[in-house]
Amino acid sequence: MVSSFSQQRWKTKHQPARADAFALERFTMQRISVALLAILLISLSSCGGQSKPSLTPSPKTPKEGGTLLIFAAASLTESFQEIGKAFTKANPGVEVTFNFAGANQLAQQITQGAPADIFASANQKQMNVVIESGQVVSGTAKVFAHNRLIIVTSKNNPLVSKDLKGLAKPGTKVVLGAKEVPFGQYALDFLAKAAKDKQFGKPYEAAVLKNVVSYENTVKGALTKVMLGEADAGIVYASDLTPEATAKVEKIAIPTSLNVIATYPIAVLKGSQQTESAQRFVDFVLSPEGQAILTKYGFAAK
Amino acid sequence: MQTTLPQQIVPRLALWQKHGSTLTLIVLALPMLCFVFLPLLALLLRASSTMLLKNLGNSAVGQAVGLSLLTTFITTLLALLFGTPLAYLLARRRFCGHTLVDTLLDLPMVLPPAVAGIALLMAFGRRGLLGPYLTYAGLEIAFSQAAVVMAQLFVAAPFYVKSATMGFAQVNREIEQAAALDGATPWRIFRLITLPLAGPALFGGAVMTWARALGEFGATIIFAGNFPGRTQTMPLAIYIGFELELNVALTLAVILLGFSFGVLGVVKGVLRREFVEL
Questions:
Q1: Which run of H or E residues covers position B127?
Q2: Which residues in chain A have Cβ-Cβ distances shorter than 8 Å to B226?
Q3: What angle, 0 to 180 degrees and rounded to 10, lies between the N-to-C axes of helices A201-211 and A182-196?
């Protein structure tokens, strides 16, 4: 009763203004929709191929000595930052900046036109995506490193035995990568190999998969959960065990016969306006100095 | 409540004058409108209807949609249940540390969601503050649907509490006092006067909380992990899908947009009809 009374009072007081506002609103809405339609048409027509060529710089003016933008897989974060510093020291005047993310995400960004000079992928598949889209300077794609999987378990965890069988013990909380990201697919490949191995067999693969509590989208995400003790075990890249991480987890090596070796390809991209500097960076990664840095961070050399 | 508007004739001169300023206003408002509108439009243009239909049958899509609806519903319910008393307290009582509590409530909205996820782990994780007690009680929260709801609640509930506090504060106290003089009990006053008058604010706040919970990603993936069918909500499926199956991601994104647009649209319609003063 009281509430409707107060509302009634409110209404009568403000009614004229509201009626006016409604009329205006209708009018305004019409105008806005007309304007939006116009913009829509303009944007659509500009998509129709006329303005596209003008987006790419018509005559390629080489602008060497600027800043290289390198798209690199997240697992390369630490090693490439150090390589970047060493490269800048060896090549004064050339700055390098990085965009680290999942290789798949980077490949998407590049095919959608992100202005990168170099792409360093965590697997051949995503490099192929970029090559097929015609964005790679032909002949520049080269494998520069290998990576292998390793099992990590949380420290002081009585639940987990310190061998491969621990992953399959009922109740062990295991984190893997999502099958969409390379380290997740590699972990599944490792389990498939183990399933064919007499020592482990199909039940091992099934038991481990049953223990999975989360399919992470990044290696760092999986590692963090094991470091915090939230998960008991996880499968990550050997290169991800930074000194900080090593202090908080225990490692279990996966035998070479079962391990999956990840290949890391690197390439200069066509969109680059400084292909010469970009090529120099790629050469630097492949040089003994670059390879030494990669080895230091747990990668196997090319 | 009547909604009939007296059809008054607006003086033409005034209308003309207003038109001039409206035009200017439209021109000034257009950049912002286009900036928000164009990416959404681009998303819709990329998603063809055949692709949508094909991927709608995808079980991962269905699971993610179902899980998102279930968890956001529970989250909104919990926000209403536990947020309302807090909002009432903040609106009606002045106490030592009032501003502090008020500011603390802003923090989850400001924090990067990933930090919110880590904070939740530090509190409720196995090795967190309450971890040992929860383990003792046989409760394992991380990687469960409860964790999804908690992540959403932590990030989204402040939107409801903030809005409800404002709503309660704006209720005319004289009406409540009048009812009290007539002998109404505090609960009756709250139920029949305060609640209806603060209604639009509570409703609007609940919708904001729901919408924020529906889009929650960062805290969820850190606190609840990503497991299809168990903790993989729509935003997680969209992000993971973006890694490989762009079409699945686009399908989910369009569904998410559709749901949000539909619900927000209906809610705004209801608000306008039910509570004319909004």
A1: none
A2: 178, 214-217
A3: 150
- The verdict on A75 and A213 lying in the same domain is no
Facing A19 at nearest CB: one of B6, B19, B142: B6
| The total number of structural domains that make up chain A | 2
Please name the residue of chain A whose CA is at the shortest distance from the CA of residue B236: A217
Regarding whether A212 and A127 lie in a shared domain, the answer is no
Structure tokens at A86: 């060493």
Specify the 3-state DSSP secondary structure of B129. Answer: coil
Say how many C-beta atoms besides its own lie within 10 A of residue B77's C-beta: 14
pTM: 0.71
Residue A117 sits in a domain whose CATH number is: 3.40.190.10
Query: How crowded is the C-beta side of B278, counted as CA atoms within 13 Å?
Result: 18
Q: Name the nearest CA neighbour of A285 among A20, A83, A140.
A: A83
Interface-testing mutation among B63, B150, B244, with chain A (most A C-beta atoms within 10 A): B244
CATH number at residue B148: 1.10.3720.10
Total CB pairs under 8 A between chain A and B: 123
Judged by CB atoms closer than 8 Å, whether chains meet at A3 and B37 is answered as: no
Per-residue pLDDT of chain B (278 residues; tens, 9 = 90+): 445 545 555 566 666 666 777 888 888 889 999 998 888 888 888 777 777 777 676 777 788 888 898 999 999 999 999 999 999 998 888 888 888 888 888 888 888 888 888 888 888 888 888 878 887 887 888 788 899 999 999 999 999 999 999 989 888 888 888 888 888 788 888 888 888 888 888 888 898 899 899 989 888 988 888 888 888 888 888 887 765 667 777 877 888 888 888 888 887 787 776 654 44
CB atoms within 10 A of CB B273: 11
Rounded distance, CA A204 to CA A201, Å?
Answer: 6
Q: Are A102 and A184 in contact (CB under 8 A)?
A: no
Nearest to B90 by CA among B167, B13, B1: B167
Residue written as token pair 């929860």: B134
Q: CA A205 to CA A102: how far, in whole Å? A: 26
Tell me the C-alpha to C-alpha distance, in Å, between residue A199 and each of A149, A171, A209, B25, B129.
19, 21, 17, 75, 41
A33 within some domain: no
Is the predicted ipTM greater than 0.85, yes or no? no
Pair A161, A249 in one domain: yes
In chain B, the number of structural domains is 1
The whole domain housing B84 covers: 59-232
Domain that holds residue A197: 147-261
Q: Establish if B69 belongs to a structural domain.
A: yes
Angle of helix B59-92 versus helix B195-215 axis, rounded to 10: 140
From A31, A39, A181, residue closest to B26, measured CB to CB: A31
